[in-house]
Amino acid sequence: MTGIGTIFRKELSDHFSSYRFTILFALIAMTSLITTYMVGISLREELSGVAKPNFVFLMLFTSTGPIFSLVQFVAFFGPLIGLFLGFDAVNRERSSGTLSMLVSQPIYRDAIINGKFLGGVATISIMLVSIVLVVSGLGLKLIGVVPGAEEVWRIALYLVISIFYISFWLAMSILFSILFRGVATSALATLAAWIFFSFFISIGASVVAGTVAPMDTQAKKNPDIIVKHVKIRENISLASPMKLYNDATSIIIDPTRKTTQAFVMMGPMERHLVERFQRPLTLTQSFQVVLPHIISLIAITLICFGISYAVFMRQEIRSM
Known about the structure:
By secondary structure, the protein is mainly alpha-helical.
């Protein structure tokens, strides 16, 4: 496509030269390093004088620091990266008059939207990779444990999932920047979407589960009602990208976790089988467990960008 490389380089230049990106990157990097330092110091004290367990390096990402772990931090605040990068991607160009200038050049219209999205994805990828590399280097210094090959692959897969997760929010913010002419309006819409998917879906899931299968005193003695309550709540929560991301990364980055379900009913034979197979899952097994979640994340990202693409291609630009 003619011009996509030009738009891509322009977006990268705009992102990396903006004060907004610099401040955002500095805040995220500082928080990540502080969390990793606190976790690393705690792990070093706990492992002092004892044999190092398997996958100890991954504990840098999963262990809870003063407030949250690194994985939890990316799950909750990562969407803000995508939202801040894309909420004014199109309406800013439109209000300044540069969008009509772009389409008047020998550049295909779809190259504009594709270049903007790819430029944002590249920025997100560079940011995440650099933060993970710095965190890993600090972890090596603090705990003195070199990650094994499987740990490296797990971290790499975690990065890929995180990039798609944040890219979904980027695609959503670009969609709002296309739908709304005002930058302030699109910014409020993106924040409202983040709040809705982050808080209200989980609250709504608990309300619906409590209505369909109420957990009163008598119900707590009935395992069937407990299982129904938990399943309803978890199934509704899967409508949130944050839930999909949390389930996928918790299995990938923690080999000791074997299911995404919070509550599992087991009979005597099942408990016996679980006791016989207490070894951590291999990377292939972990990937198979969360494959539906990963596919769902990729799908909603592509669908959201596809809607943005279709709306942008149908809009009249020169008359705006």
